[in-house]
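Researcher: We're reviewing a set of sequences before deciding which ones to prioritize for further study. For each one, I'd like a predicted 3D structure that I can look through quickly. This is Guanine deaminase. If possible, include the structure in token form so it fits the rest of the review sheet.
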Amino acid sequence: MRGLKIIMVPHIGVHTGIEEILAIGQATHLEQAKNINQISNDDVENIVLTKTQILIPGLIDTHIHAPQYPNCGLGYDKPLLEWLDHYTYKLEKKIPRSRTIQESRKTLDHGTTTSCYFGSLFYDSSMILVDAAIKHGQRALIGKINMTTLAPDDYVETPEESLSCTKKFIEDVQAKQNKLVQPIITPRFALSLDMDLMAELGQLAKQHGLHIQTHIAENVDELKMVEEKYRMPYATVYDKANLLTPKTVLAHGIYLTDDEVNLIVKRGTSIAHCPDSNTCLKSGLCDVRRLQAAGVKVGLGTDVAGGSSPSIVRTMKAALDTSVHISFREKNYQPLDYTDVFYLATLGGAEALALEEEIGNFAIGKDFDALIVDMDAEGSSVDFLLHCSPRELLQKFIYYGDDKNIKSVFVAGKSVK
Ligand SMILES: Nc1nc2[nH]cnc2c(=O)[nH]1
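Model: Here's the predicted structure for Guanine deaminase, in token form for your review sheet.
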């Protein structure tokens, strides 16, 4: 029996630049697990790793549109604003209920233990997503989108409808009293709403202490339209509406100016870096190093279906590629390495969602969200010649990007795959 009971999990702190190697023993996991009522201890008690397996913190998707899932891999012949009109709104408004139920199951299978979801404009389908996350045991922030302008006639709401429906959604999600699933305020982007409604949503978030998510500075045509509409920088638009808070996550942020980055840092707001989407929609290259150097908290987002895959493993590889591509054009640029993107996908994501007290790594007192990755899993095409250390197994997992290597998934100590 080649089982190991003590597991070494490499984890890198980008903010300090100091490598922390966390030695995680089974006893620690069980101690954490016992703090949480709904845990069946049997789920974590029997974790025994072989030499081709590692235990890593659960992966965190800080930006994904659940009702766009069926369009993954389709429709990348148009830039953002045309893509929204031509493919995205049409799908979001007709997505069948049964599909939405499957989305949280699918992302869990890809190792996403925490998802920050955009739902649709509709209360019903957004609530189905809430029920699905609860049913499947996924940790999730879920938002009903607000969209009152620049939208199709049959997929739009009035500001009054938008506000009252959002209030009902928040109340009903909170009434479920599920520890893992919370509502999040979700104004689509500055072009989809006017200032008054955005300010009301900012007020609502403050009143209920809620998270906020939206998009920012993703595409050059979008930037121009925001500038024409509001006559102020993009980040200032959200700031005026009190939407920039320490619990706000902004997707993309490719074209933020230095002043906007500084404002975002001042507000404690974070960025969801969505490199696969930025490539598929040809939006641009987001410089994570620049954001982090300024002090912005950054996590990773698949941005399904701007992104072609629901896999955060593939998104880690896309983040590596984007960073290397930036290094080709910038002298002395240090591209991200696999440890950096691992951080973005775990503790970085937790920080970006202001959940770092609960998840992101195996620090004592946090919930046990974890994956067992088996680089020799049945059905996986990975090949080994030599023995690999845990760090090498992690590196191979990230670069190889095959989700078949995810053997088990735990959320709050409970086995969900
Ligand atoms: N990538 C992306 N950007 C957006 N901006 C406004 N809506 C969207 C969306 O659905 N996806």
